[in-house]
Amino acid sequence: MKLSVPGRVTATAVVAAASLLVGGSIAGAAPAPAVAAAPDIPLANVKAHLTQLQSIATANGGNRAHGRAGYRASLDYVKARLDAAGYTTAIQQFTSSGRTGYNLIADWPGGDTDQVVMAGSHLDSVISGAGINDNGSGSAAVLETALAVSRANLQPTKHLRFAWWGAEELGLVGSRHYVNTLSSTDRSKITGYLNFDMIGSPNPGYFVYDDDPAIEKTFKDYFTGLGVPTEIETEGDGRSDHAPFKSAGVPVGGLFTGASRAKTAAQAAKWGGTSGQAFDRCYHSSCDTTSNINDTALDRNSDAVAHAVWELSS
Ligand code: DTR
Ligand code: CA
Ligand code: ZN
Ligand code: ZN
Fold this sequence. Notes:
The chain is α/β, with parallel strands linked by helices. 40% of the residues lie in helices and 17% in strands.
C-alpha cells in the first residue's frame, strides 16, 4: 500500500493498513485453512449395508416395518456397526399404533456440543416390502458416512450426531418424538439437520431440498462440481423427517431421487433414464428390493452426504 506522504504516516494510511490487517488479506499472507475434503464413500460398502437390510427383511416376514421384528433387527445391525466404530449410541423408545418403536441416535465424541450438526434417515419400511430404496438407501448412506468419520478419526469443530428414525411411514412419528422430547435448549443447539429419504431411485432425479439456503448451496455446489444438474425438491414439503425439525426452527436440508411421480421428458434429457416412468416404480411395493437401486445415484448421493457432513461440521 502506497503512503500518501512519503516519510509521514497519516491517520488515513494507518486506518487503511489496519483494515487490511483486519478485513483484507495482505499479499503473501497464508490463505485461510481449507476444509478437509470428505473421503469418497465406497459404493460397495453402502450396498453391503443394503444386502444386510434385505437379508433382515427376508428373514422377518419380508419387511422392516415399524413394530415388527425386521425393524428392530435393522436397528440392531446399524447400532452394532456404530458401537464398534467408537460412537456413543442410544436407543429412544416410543409407542405408535399400539406397537413399540425405536429411534437410534449416535453421537461422535468431540466437537462443540453447543453446535450440533445432525444427519438422519428413517430406517423403517412399509409393511409390503423390504424398503431398500425407501429407505434403506438413506440409512445405508448415513451409516457409511458415520463409519467414514470414524475411519478418518474426524475432529470437527461442531459436534456430529447421526440418527435413524422409526415409524416415518406412519407419519414421521419417530423423528417428531425425538424433536418433541428435546429441551428447548438442546433443540437450539442443533445448527442443522440433513435428511436423506430415497436417494437411490432406479429412474433417478437429483433433487435438493430448498429449505435452508446454506445447506441447499452445500449440496448444489457439490453436484455442480460433478457436472450433475439438480432441481429443487417439490414433491411435497413435510413429507419426511426434516419436517419436525423445520417446524421447531432448525435449519434443514436434504437430498431425494424421487418416488411415484413420473420423470418428464425434460428431466430425462438432463439426467438420462426413462421419461413418463416413475422415478421409483416400486415405491411402497414388494419390489423395493436390492434390485430397485440405481448405483450411480446411490454413489453420487452417498458422496454428497459425506461432503455436507464434513463441510457443515468444520
Ligand atoms: N414420504 C417419503 C417419500 C417421499 C415422498 N416425497 C418426498 C419428498 C422428500 C423426501 C421424501 C419423500 C416416504 O414414503 O418415506
Ligand atoms: Ca463414492
Ligand atoms: Zn415411504
Ligand atoms: Zn421414505
